[in-house]
């Protein structure tokens, strides 16, 4: 049983790859392409998710269990921002051949990154609209997120999530 999101993404993307639709570089990819995929996946999952966003949730949302630690949250935000600057720089350069982190094609890395960006926006760590602009990277992120959010699969997933939240709110009084 897989329980870690990057492993689940990689498994599903590999299992259901068809034709030219590969969210994970196929085994026939260059060693450099495979290494880049794993590097981006690990960077996002460790440096953004675990050492950034999860620390926020642990000490802000779940402080009842883990205790409040403004210092830990401040350091987590610094960590998130540092990694974010590197990833945005890669998006700006587009030296990989396209608008996505792996190049011209959307990949499972983009799924993980967008998840973290959405999470960061929800907790106030990321502004992506011009009227909310906090730094010069927001335009690049706004374009990137618009491209990713407009994908039909993202829209279907968002609709399912909203329906589930409405169900829980109505029937359980939760959320």
Summarize the structure.
This protein has 175 residues and is an all-alpha fold.
What does this entry look like structurally?
This protein is mostly helical. The protein has helices at residues 5-15, 31-61, 63-66, 70-93, 108-122, 138-149, 152-171. Helix 1 packs antiparallel against helix 5, helix 2 runs antiparallel to helix 4 and helix 2 runs parallel beside helix 5 (108-122). It is globular, with a radius of gyration of 17 Å.
| Number of H- or I-type helical stretches | 7
Helix content: 55-70%
Amino- and carboxy-terminal Cα gap: 28 Å
Count of DSSP E strands? 0
Overall mean pLDDT? 88
Q: Low-confidence runs (pLDDT<50, min 5 residues)?
A: none
- What is the assembly state of the chains in this entry? single chain
Series of secondary-structure elements, N-terminal to C-terminal: HHHHHHH
- State which percent range the strand residues make up: under 5%
Shape, per Cα inertia axes: globular
Structural class: mainly alpha
The biggest sheet amounts to: none
Taking Cα atoms only, what radius of gyration do you get, to the nearest Å?
Answer: 17 Å
């Amino acid at each position: 049983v897989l329980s870690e999101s990057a492993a689940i993404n990689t498994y599903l993307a590999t299992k259901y790859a068809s034709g030219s639709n590969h969210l994970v570089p196929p085994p026939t990819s260059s060693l450099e392409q495979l290494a880049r995929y794993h590097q981006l996946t690990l960077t996002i999952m460790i440096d953004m998710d675990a050492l950034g966003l999860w620390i926020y949730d642990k000490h802000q949302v779940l402080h009842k269990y883990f205790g409040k630690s403004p210092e830990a949250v401040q350091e987590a935000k610094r960590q998130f921002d540092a990694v974010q600057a590197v990833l945005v720089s890669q998006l700006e350069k587009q030296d990989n051949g396209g608008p996505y982190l792996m190049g011209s094609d959307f990949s499972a890395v983009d799924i993980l990154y967008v998840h973290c960006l959405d999470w960061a926006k929800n907790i106030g760590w990321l502004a992506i609209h011009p009227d909310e602009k906090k730094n010069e990277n927001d335009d690049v992120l706004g374009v990137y997120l618009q491209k990713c959010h407009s994908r039909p699969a993202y829209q279907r997933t968002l609709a399912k999530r909203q329906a589930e939240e409405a169900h829980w709110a109505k029937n359980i009084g939760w959320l």
